[in-house]
Design a protein that fits this description.
- The chain has a single domain (about 5-160), classed as Aminopeptidase (3-Layer(aba) Sandwich).
- The protein is built from four helices and seven strands; from the N terminus they run E-H-H-E-E-E-H-E-H-E-E.
- The chain has helices spanning about 15-25, 35-40, 90-105, 120-130, and strands spanning about 5-10, 45-55, 60-70, 75-85, 110-115, 135-140, 145-155.
- A seven-stranded mixed beta sheet has the order 1-2-3-4-5-7-6, sandwiched between helices.
- A hairpin with an 8-residue loop joins strand 2 and strand 3.
- Helix 1 crosses helix 2.
- The longest helix is centred in the middle third of the chain and has 15 residues, at about 90-105.
- The two termini are about 30 Å apart.
- The model is unreliable at about 170-179 (pLDDT under 50).
- It binds coenzyme A.
- The site of coenzyme A (COA) has 20 residues, from strand 4, helix 3 and helix 4.
Length: about 180
C-alpha cells in the first residue's frame, strides 16, 4: 500500500516558486529558476513530478519533493530529485524515483542512467535499492564543492514486482496550496 500522507502529481508552471525554494534548500549548487523553468515548460524530453503533502505540525499542503527526469527515446535519465529535509526517510524519494521508472517503462524506455555526487550516500543508497549499479566515474564533474560523479545504470528498466501500483495522480486531481 502506498503511504497515504503524500501524493505525486505532474508539476505545473505555477509551482515554480516552491520548486525553486526546495531546490535551493537541497543542493549546494542548485539549478537556477531559469533552468528549472526551462525544464518545466520548454523541454520536450523533460517530465516533472512533485510530491505534495503536509509537513509535520502544519495544516496546509505544500510541495515536499520533486523529480525532473528526461525520456530520450529508449533512455530514462534521472536529472534532479529532491525531498524537503524535514520529510526525508519517509519513502518520498523512492516513490518519486519509482514513478520515473514507471513512466519510462510506459514510454518504452529500456534503460536508466543518472549521475550522483560520489559523497552522496543517501541518493546512492536509494538508487541501489531500485537496482541501479555504478558503471563509471566522471572526474571533477560537480562544482561547489568540486567532486566526482558516479554514473549509475539500471538495465533492463523494469518496475519492481512489489511496486506495480502506480501512485501518480492525473493532472488536476489535487490542489496544491502555496506556502
Ligand atoms: C536523496 C533523497 C532524495 C532521498 O529522499 P528520501 O525521501 O529521504 O528517501 P527515501 O525515504 O525514499 O529512502 C529510500 C532509501 O534510500 C536510502 N537512503 C535515503 N536516505 C539515506 C541516508 N540519509 N543515508 C543512507 N541511506 C539513505 C535508504 O536505503 C532508504 O531506504 P530505508 O529508509 O528503507 O533505509 C534526499 O536525501 C534528498 O533530497 N537529498 C538532497 C538532494 C539530493 O542529493 N538529491 C539526489 C541527487 S542525485
Amino acid at each position: 500500500m502506498p503511504n497515504p500522507s503524500f501524493r505525486i502529481v505532474p508539476a505545473t508552471a505555477d509551482m515554480l516558486p516552491d520548486i525553486v525554494q526546495l531546490e535551493e534548500a537541497c543542493f549546494s549548487a542548485p539549478w537556477t529558476r531559469k533552468m528549472l523553468e526551462a525544464e518545466l515548460t520548454g523541454n520536450q524530453f523533460a517530465h516533472f513530478l512533485v510530491a505534495v503533502g503536509c509537513e509535520e505540525g502544519k495544516t496546509t499542503e505544500s510541495i515536499i519533493g520533486y523529480h525532473c527526469f528526461w525520456i530520450v527515446f529508449e533512455e530514462l535519465r534521472l536529472m534532479n530529485l529532491a525531498v524537503r529535509p524535514s520529510m526525508r526517510r519517509k519513502g518520498i524519494g523512492r516513490a518519486l524515483a519509482l514513478e520515473a521508472v514507471r513512466v519510462g517503462v510506459g514510454l518504452a524506455a529500456n534503460r536508466a542512467l543518472l549521475e550522483v555526487r560520489a559523497s552522496n550516500e543517501a541518493a546512492q543508497g536509494l538508487y541501489r535499492k531500485l537496482g541501479f549499479v555504478p558503471i563509471s566515474t566522471r572526474r571533477q564533474y560537480y562544482t561547489n564543492p568540486t567532486e566526482d560523479a558516479v554514473i549509475m545504470e539500471l538495465i533492463p528498466l523494469v518496475v519492481p514486482e512489489n511496486e506495480r501500483e502506480a501512485r501518480l495522480f492525473p493532472v488536476g486531481s489535487g490542489s496544491v496550496s502555496a506556502h
